[in-house]
Amino acid sequence: MSERSDIDIAFLRQRLEDRRADISAHSNHSEDYRKPVELDQQAVGRLSRMDALQDQQMHLEQERRRAAELDRIEKTLARIEHADYGFCHNCGEEIEKKRLEFDPTTPLCVDCAAHVKHS
């Protein structure tokens, strides 16, 4: 496979790097919210503790999603470095330019993605 000349790889790489920095900043900012909730019934009532536990779980889920997105970004940046970017993982055909512009991390063309969803 050769590098795609029909897409602005430098622009997409910059978008990915900016998003990676954004995710890291959010992850660092929300670190305190993911810490274990203290079990001190004197200081916090049962309902307040339940709210705190729910908040903690929401922040943990957000962190899981950020980690998954970071993983996709890292894999995409690696594909860019190896000139594999813009080609479908399954069939090797070019991924549509509009699809890559919408989601630069997408590894599949429309046809292969449709087959994955229906399987």
From TrEMBL:
Q: Does the keyword Zinc-finger apply?
A: yes
Instruction: Give all residue intervals belonging to the Zinc finger DksA/TraR C4-type domain.
Output: 84-114
- The stretches annotated as zinc fingers (dksA C4-type) lie at 88-112
Print the keywords alphabetically: Metal-binding, Zinc, Zinc-finger
Identify the InterPro entries for this entry. Znf_DskA_TraR
Protein name, please? Conjugal transfer protein TraR
- Family matches, as SUPFAM superfamilies: Glucocorticoid receptor-like (DNA-binding domain)
Lineage, top-rank taxon, reads Bacteria
